[in-house]
Write a structure and sequence with these properties.
Number of strands: 10
Number of domains: 2
Bound molecules: flavin mononucleotide
Number of helices: 5
Distance between the termini: 21 Å
Helix content: 25-40%
């Protein structure tokens, strides 16, 4: 299938300068923050959405979208149910790959590295920033497990809402929390004409980082 990209798409011209290794002189984090801001400014919906790849017990890849909820020198943070498929997979094989895809600004970032659960304090702080409804939803859903009907799911939400009442703080659901991916490899991709895209990859070797350009 051929899709017409129009003049602004992946293959379209851009007034932006070419991505180069120099832009990574201060490491992956400042450039990643800048690109995330570019995505926000461009009005991309859910600019912090990223495709999370994990492997299952057969070594098969599994992907789904999660929201990035923190970027720091330590890594990339998201929150989920630790007993979901992804949670179990990461417990067994604690290594993840995440990709941010920002088609309207012709940019993509992939981060790979070991994944670990964050402290209860970090989870607690984020949990309490979530709307009450989302906190109740996290209690109501046995994420990734089958359920017979939508009606049963709605009943589960009503049940937890009644259980907690209106004035009570909703505590962190057990086995719900943050996962931090500690970057080992970060690749920045910038779309260019004729599929001659710019790709700059930075990789960690102990506490040293190398930067290299990859062919598109
Ligand atoms: C835009 C978007 C953002 C999402 N963010 C999250 C998230 O941050 N955490 C989460 O657990 N699920 C999130 N989901 C739902 C997941 O994609 C997925 O369906 C769910 O986590 C179950 O995945 P699993 O069965 O592979 O564990 C999001 C879905 C979309 C479309």
């Amino acid at each position: 299938m051929r899709v017409g990209y129009g003049h602004q798409g992946i293959a379209g011209p851009s007034e932006e300068s070419d991505l180069d290794a120099e832009q990574l002189k201060d490491g992956w984090l400042p450039l990643m923050r800048r690109w995330l801001e570019d995505a926000v400014e461009a009005g991309i919906p859910e600019p912090n959405a990223m495709t999370l790849g994990t492997v299952d017990e057969h070594g098969h890849p599994c992907t789904r979208t999660v929201l990035c909820k923190g970027l720091s020198p330590a890594g990339v943070l998201f929150f989920t149910n630790y007993e979901s498929d992804k949670g179990r997979q990461l417990a067994a094989v604690p290594y993840a790959s995440v990709t941010f895809t920002w088609v309207p600004i012709a940019k993509q970032i992939t981060v790979r590295g070991p994944a670990e659960r964050v402290s209860a304090e970090v989870t607690d702080e984020y949990w309490h920033s979530r709307p009450r409804g989302s906190r109740l939803g996290a209690w109501a859903s046995e994420q990734s497990r089958p359920i017979r009907s939508r009606a049963e799911l709605d009943a589960a939400l009503l049940h937890v809402a009644e259980r907690f009442g209106v004035d009570v703080d909703i505590p962190v659901r057990p086995n719900w929390g943050g996962i931090l991916i500690r970057p080992e490899v970060v690749e920045f991709w910038q779309g260019r004409a004729n599929r001659m895209h710019n790709r700059i990859r930075t990789s960690r070797h102990g506490d040293r980082w190398t930067v290299e350009r990859l062919q598109p």
